[in-house]
Amino acid sequence: GAGPIGIIAAQAARAFGATEIYITDIAEDRLAFALEHGATHALNAKTDSVEGLDVDAFIDASGAPQAVRSGIKAVGPAGRVILVGLGADDLELPVSHIQNREIWLSGVFRYTNTWPLAIQLIADGKVDLDILVTGKFALAESEEALKAGKQAGQLKAVVYPGR
Questions:
Q1: Span between the terminal Cα atoms of the chain, in Å
Q2: Which domains, from first to last, does the chain contain?
């Protein structure tokens, strides 16, 4: 997905040397934003297929079961699948595809041991978090912030308690 986590993943992939970065979403405005901020290809998940792309790695930031299944089929032999997005507890996977292609599958959950590297990527300007903030709100405006976060063109509405 081309939400905040997907955009961060695209920027991190570029920082680590990826030259072809595909991102999928169903929102055209988010796809356009992704192309401006790290992705080299933007595909609409409703109309474009990723299956058979033979990418080296697939990072799912959506947690959507169909996105995970499609992403696995986009991975080339000996590729990696990393599940970041929180989704359903149970998921039907193309196990024979994973085995036949010897795909490595892993889930991650933002462990503190990864923070120093994440902070360094931000400090070095390789990951830009400021671009993700599309709305700033005071604590008293929390309800407005929640509504704004669901509107088209919005990525991350941030509430500042001291504002």
A1: 31
A2: 4-128 (3.40.50.720), 129-163 (no CATH)
Average pLDDT of the segment spanning 120-132: 97
pTM of the predicted protein model: 0.89
What are the structure tokens assigned to 115, written together? 């923070």
132 vs 83: CA distance, rounded Å: 21
What does the pLDDT look like over 67-123, one tens digit per residue?
A: 999 999 999 999 999 999 988 889 999 999 999 999 999 998 877 888 999 999 999
Structure tokens at 162: 């001291």
For residue 91, give both structure tokens.
Answer: 């998921």
Give 117's contacts (C-beta < 8 A, 6+ positions apart): none
